Amino acid sequence: MAAPLVEMRDISIAFGGVKAVDGVTVDLHRGEVVGLLGHNGAGKSTLIKALSGAYKRDAGQIFIDGAEVQIDNPRDARRCNIETIYQTLALADNLDAKANLFLGRELVGGAGFLDDDAMEAETRKIMKRLNPNFAKFTAPVKALSGGQRQSVAIARAIYFDAKILIMDEPTAALGPAETAQVGELVKQLKAEGIGIFLISHDIHDVFDLADRVFVMKNGQLVGQARTADVTKDEVLGMIILGKCPKAAIPGPGALDS
User: Are residues 64 and 182 in the same domain?
Assistant: First the structure.
């Protein structure tokens, strides 16, 4: 069996003596969406920030395609083809899609000037691939809908060859139509073999998009399960009570472990 695209093994992270993440192991395969669930303070965002390079881990190992890697900062993560789309999207509101796509990584022509034509052509190409209905190429992104803004953020990650995508609350504050649009984008990326970690408080979104879920509570892993094998109520029981159903694989944080 092929090695996981990502394996985070026995990860621990402490702040001021308090263990925010305590010996957690999660994995992700190519073309798979893995949901990370838990209450605020459960440790899921802290765990995934060790993969994005935002936090340094105190213990544990990270493997990409079976090879151990050192990720101490976001540059290290990008070298491992890991891109993160935060809830805030980190877009420059006053700039258009093209400028946001290439922000900090602009294309330069032979004379040393910005190659606007090449950047616009590349932006149109990838947006056609991700969102064929996208037409507001010259509008500042602040004028775009939430779903369109997500399209720009995803395009920026994918254009620079992300193989591992971390999505933090991708449908927060979106309406039903925009949520469906983001869902279609996620399914398309999955079909292209990209592995996605999906952090969400919305259990319905997770069940719609994720192949597996990992549930954390108080910094520990309660357990993991395939979404096809468990119900939403059973996963809520994992989140709230730390109780694993029979179809789940319990972790150290499970109630009965």
Answer: yes
Where is 64: in which H helix or E strand? strand 59-64
Same domain assignment for residues 139 and 239: no
pLDDT tens readout for residues 160-205: 888 999 998 887 767 787 788 888 888 889 998 999 999 987 888 8
Residues 256 and 231 both lie in one domain: yes
Contact (CB, 8 A) for 81 and 162: yes
Predicted confidence (pLDDT) at residue 81 exceeds the cutoff of 90: yes
Query: Could you tell me which of 85, 227, 68, 221 has the C-alpha nearest to residue 151?
Result: 85
The 3-state DSSP class for residue 238 equals helix
**Contact 123/160 with Cβ under 8 angstroms?**
no
* 206 plus 247 within the same structural domain: yes
pLDDT at 1: 64
The model carries a pTM of: 0.88
Burial tier of 116 (Cβ tally within 10 Å: 0-12, 13-18, 19+)? middle
Other Cβ atoms less than 10 A from the Cβ of 169: the count is: 18
Distance, in Å, from the CA atom of 236 to the CA atom of 233, rounded to the nearest integer, reads: 5
